[in-house]
Every structure is written in structure tokens, then in C-alpha cells.
Specification:
Elements (H helix, E strand, L loop, with lengths): L1 E3 H7 L3 E8 L11 E17 L2 E15 L6 E15 L5 E2 L4 E3 H12 L32
Parallel strand pairs: 5-6
Antiparallel strand pairs: 1-7, 2-3, 3-4, 4-5
Length: 146
């Protein structure tokens, strides 16, 4: 999603609300056999802070779908994250280029920051028995514990 600072200047306002559906790169999820459910919802506010700078704040809602990392059952979980980023034509951080702000990189970084290391069907998932492979969420397998 590209936001044009000129449009905000022309409106005579100091800020602009935005909402868009975003499709991040398929490779964004680093969890094996797990993908980001499309589309991702992004909403927020762009506030002008200077001639070629702004503050972008908002929230992102995304879901992950795939195999539970412990028991391998198909699962889907929803996550929420917020972001607040200064964007300018300076040397550091996100850039204003030709009076536009590309929110794609900001959204990707916010999702990566919130992304768990593993996807679990439940926080208390017991996983599979290492000996016989039985799903321990369904009961004890009877294997002798060492």
C-alpha cells in the first residue's frame, strides 16, 4: 500500500486514516509447514510531522495456518500487533520516496516481530509420543517413560 503525502497536504489536514488488505510475501513465515493466511488487515493513521516526514501508526491482524509444531494437527491462530514508525527522507529507518510511503515493508516487519517461533494448536499441547507416535492430547500411550 502506497500512501501519497501530497494528497494529505492538499486535503489541508495533518493526518489521514487508512485501511487496506495486504498480501505479504509467501516466504514471510519461517515456521515449517505454516503460512500466513491472506489477506492481512492493516489499519492506522498517517500524521504529517514535516515537509517530507510523517508518523505512521496502526494495527495489523493476521492469521497463521498449518501444522501444530508439537502434534502435527492442522490449526489456525489469529494474531494482533501494533506499529508506530517515523518515516522521513533521512538516512535511517523507513524512507519517504517521491513524497510517498510504502507501508508494505512496515507491515512485513511488524508481522515478523509478532510471529511466534512455533505454531501450537493449544498452549498446553502435549505433542506426540517420541516412541510410538500417539497424540498425547488424546491420552497416555502406555509407553514406558525413561
Amino acid at each position: 500500500m502506497i500512501l501519497d503525502l501530497k494528497e494529505v497536504y492538499k486535503s489541508g489536514k495533518e493526518s489521514r486514516d487508512f485501511f487496506f488488505l495486504y498480501e505479504p510475501d509467501e516466504e514471510l513465515s519461517t515456521i515449517p509447514n505454516v503460512s500466513v493466511v491472506l489477506p492481512v488487515k492493516v489499519n492506522g493513521t498517517l500524521t504529517l510531522t514535516g515537509t517530507h516526514s510523517c508518523l505512521v501508526e496502526g494495527e495489523i491482524t493476521f492469521s497463521l495456518k498449518g501444522e501444530c509444531s508439537r502434534c502435527l494437527k492442522e490449526t489456525e491462530k489469529e494474531y494482533f500487533t501494533s506499529f508506530s514508525e517515523e518515516v522521513s527522507d533521512g538516512e535511517n529507518g523507513y524512507k519517504v520516496i517521491n513524497d510517498t510511503v510504502d507501508l508494505g515493508k512496515i507491515a512485513d516487519d511488524a508481522i515478523l516481530t509478532e510471529m511466534p517461533l512455533v505454531l501450537l494448536c493449544d498452549e498446553n499441547c502435549k505433542g506426540l509420543c517420541g516412541t510410538c507416535g500417539k497424540d498425547l492430547n488424546e491420552g497416555d500411550c502406555g509407553c514406558r517413560k525413561q
